[in-house]
Amino acid sequence: MKAVRIHEHGSIDVLMWEEIKSQECPDDKVRVRIKAAALNHLDIWIRKGFDGISLPMPLIMGSDGAGIITEIGRDVTNLKTGDEVVIQPNTFCGSCPACQSGKENFCQTYGILGETENGTQANEIILYPKNIHPKPKHLSFEAAASMQLVFITAYQMLVRRAKLTAGEYVLIYGATSGVGSAAIQIAKYLNSKVITTVGSNDKFPHAEKMGADFSVNHNDSNWVKKVKNITDGKGINVVFEHVGASTWSSSLRLLARGGRIVTCGATTGHKVNIDLRHLFMKQQSILGSTMSDINTFNTVMKLIDQKVFFPFIDKIFPFENIRDAHTRIEDRCQYGKIVLSDNG
Ligand SMILES: [Zn+2]
Q1: Looking at the whole model, is its pTM more than 0.85?
Q2: Which residues are placed with Cβ below 5 angstroms of ligand 1, an ion?
Q3: CA 294 to centroid of ligand 1, rounded, Å
């Protein structure tokens, strides 16, 4: 079989579409023929490497995928060959106190496919049944593969962590990013008032299509003031952060009394300043979040099945063009998700 693998961290040149040996399917796992696999910003971080964290090498990339079950281990009873499925990207032990209490993303052995173990960007993947979920029938493999990681991440942030409610103002950075597009849809589902940022005026229609009530161009020197004015000077109740150092001071300046900043990433840098006086006087909260628990995954999948949340694909590439796919994300020219497909 072939897979997108890295043997070391670095530029797009480390991405290899290469032949590797197929493994035996153990009794407690299933083999999935991958039809489509999505990229996430996480892929860029993993390719470049994290300070002080070592990942297993060589590593098959990819957290999101959809395909068809082609082989069943003899102990697996709830699935069958021919089933069309999507991949659940969280990995966890299933038996520790955190897992038993439904907080799988707090498990000591918690990991993510395509980061801590081999991922989805390959002809096939062998997984435990807990990493398999039925594919929404109304979606193509490409569309189905594009939704899991960004929707579970954004849902966990807005619903479980920040507890965003109807009528509250939420500021979502990066309307055309994968996680930003998902967050807009979720925030509108919660009936909150969505303000989003874009990097150029031609991206306003995408923000509107995702459901944003207001959009501002973050290259406009007045954008912070514009956002404040939208809220009649009261500020933002929930800031959805995944940008990091370059937006942090604006996020704090815009935060209302009792406001919450929830963050899942730091693309532009991870060192920031906080004025503690504002934090305690205005009774604000700063919340970290990563991926989701399984309850959130199942909730998101149900809402996708009900067509409440919809896919937003920017471009589909064949697997072998993986370097072009990374370049498109890094150049920030995408409108939604980048997907690899065996029909691409
Ligand atoms: Zn566990």
Answers
A1: yes
A2: 92-93, 96, 99, 107
A3: 12
pLDDT, tens digit (0-9, with 9 covering 90-100), for 39-66 = 999 999 999 998 888 999 999 999 999 9
Q: Does CATH number 2.40.10.340 belong to domain 2-147+311-341? A: no
Which CATH fold topology does 151-288 show?
A: Rossmann fold (3.40.50)
Centre of ligand 1 from the C-alpha of residue 276, in Å:
35
Give the distance (Å) from ligand 1 centre to CA of residue 291: 15
For residue 58, cis peptide bond before it (omega within 30 degrees of 0): yes
Q: What is the mean pLDDT of residues 81-97?
A: 97
Is pLDDT above 60 for 186? yes
pLDDT, average across residues 168-188:
96
**Per-residue pLDDT, 299:** 98
